[in-house]
Amino acid sequence: MRKKLFIYLGCIAMSCLLVTRQCHAAAYVYVPNNADDTVSVINHLENTVTDTIDVGDGPLGVAMMSNADYVYVTNNLDNTISVISTFDNTVAQTIDVGNSPWGLALDSDGSHVYVVNNSDNTVSVITTSDHTVIETIEVGAAPLGIAVTPEDDFIYVTNSADNTVSVIDTSDYTVTETIEVGGTPRGIEVSPDNFFVYVANSLDNTVTIISAVDYSIIATIEVGVDPRGIAAFPAGDIFYVTNYADNTVSVMSSYSLIALDTIDVGSGPWGAMVTFLGDYLYVVNNGDNSVIKINTVDYTDITGITVGTSPIALGAFIGGKPPEAPGDLVATVISDKQIDLSWTDNSPDEFGFMVESKKGSQATYAVVAELDEDVTAYSHTGLSYDRIYYYRVVSYNDASRSDYSNEVSVTTEDSDSDCFIATAAYGSYLEPHTRVLRTFRDTFLLTNSVGKAFVNFYYDFGPKVAGFITGHDHVRTVVRWALLPLVGFCWLALKLGPAPTLALMLLPLILISATSLILMKRKKVKNIPA
């Protein structure tokens, strides 16, 4: 019996070794080693090289699919792309491209990979469904770096020999703009909010910041010596620049346009990338065959990992398996102020969940809660009454986000039983005076945005006033008498309409005013000397 148990446990262990990413969806770092013709695979959580993959001749650039099924590596010396399957870390296919491929980038859904061919002055467009080249685009002289916008609508390419950036429209693969930047531009990155394009100019020791809106030059900022790689922080305005010749990384702000910090790293830093959660910065040191993992909280927690010879990692080299999407999302209305959500956790390895909501179908989703792993319920409170709320839930780990759950929508309750001040004064929401006020609210106030805003404001302070009235009988009597004119106006408005009622109520005031004016004129006439 014990022997069978050991065999069973051994089989489980072997399965986990073969399909590691299905046992735990940790992030993995894929680093091309240019002189070894290999790629080192680093486990992000364990800080160890778990595999070494043989690829083509002179690997430089790297990019990973959003779901991390494949890693693409440019082989500079044999004009090919190695397609690595992350299931078993073997080269599944080799794709012929242009001469001397350098940088490459994937679009957000992983449907296309774009490859810079340095000696051809072109960009190859490859579909990842069948790994075929479908387009070749002419750009500037000696292109090196490439980046895709978050919306996948434009591609930016650095042309190192003519000091420009080519802007490619992905709708028809034409170059729509050519932007002059600094000397020998190499690395390029688009900010996550798609406001800025960062370009590292290695000859000038500068970074050019370009507006992604109108392609104007916002600023040119001095950094370290021979900047080559750029990595953007997932949120905010921070970006990092690797300075190859002085072995540092500049921590930059695109809003203040200054260097916030300088980090000492290894020899010849080149590739750089920030993890999905933004907690670590990875820097690839070409000169000492290492990768540096830096905690982004204060940049003092630094871990060194030895890889192959002359690593470069130009591009996006961190990825992994995202968790499975949560499912069976259900929303239950509890009151006019609260909606309870529940869902099914379909993944064993998420780090947490994000609940997103929007008010109305035309609004934009926003995160309303970030929850820990294994949590499957959330109460959304502080809502507006009689409003439609939409919800969806997404899980995440250190590699990426899952797909979204199913979308649900529900409407918060109306507040018929909560006509606070009138109910407190008259003793019941069914009392005739209270019913008149409620009917007026539903008939006139809730039919327009101004009326709804007033009612929402009333329901914010009404309960406190009602609580005071309920505890004081003499106050209740005064409030009942004070509400009579309002009740009378609402009753007439329901019978005649608000405009005629308002005119009818203003008529006595108009008559009194007119009479007063006539009397004053007569008195003035009498007082005129003969």
What does this structure look like?
The chain is of the alpha+beta class and 530 residues long. Among the domains are: 327-411, Sandwich (Immunoglobulin-like); 420-496, no CATH class. It is built from seven helices and 36 strands. A five-stranded mixed sheet has the order 7-6-5-4-28, with no helix packed on it. The longest helix has 29 residues, at 498-526.
Features:
single chain; 530 residues; alpha+beta; Immunoglobulin-like; four-stranded antiparallel beta sheet; 22% helix; elongated
Write the layout of secondary structure elements.
Layout: H1 2-18, H2 20-23, E1 27-33, E2 38-43, E3 48-54, E4 59-64, E5 70-75, E6 80-85, E7 90-96, E8 101-106, E9 112-117, E10 122-127, E11 132-138, E12 143-148, E13 154-159, E14 164-169, E15 174-180, E16 185-190, E17 196-201, E18 206-211, E19 217-222, E20 227-232, E21 238-243, E22 248-253, E23 258-264, E24 269-274, E25 280-285, E26 290-295, E27 302-306, E28 314-315, E29 318-320, E30 327-333, E31 339-344, E32 352-359, E33 366-372, E34 377-380, E35 388-396, E36 408-411, H3 420-426, H4 432-443, H5 449-470, H6 473-496, H7 498-526
Parallel strand pairs: 4-28
Antiparallel strand pairs: 1-2, 1-29, 2-3, 4-5, 5-6, 6-7, 8-9, 9-10, 10-11, 12-13, 13-14, 14-15, 16-17, 17-18, 18-19, 20-21, 21-22, 22-23, 24-25, 25-26, 26-27, 30-31, 31-34, 32-33, 32-35, 35-36
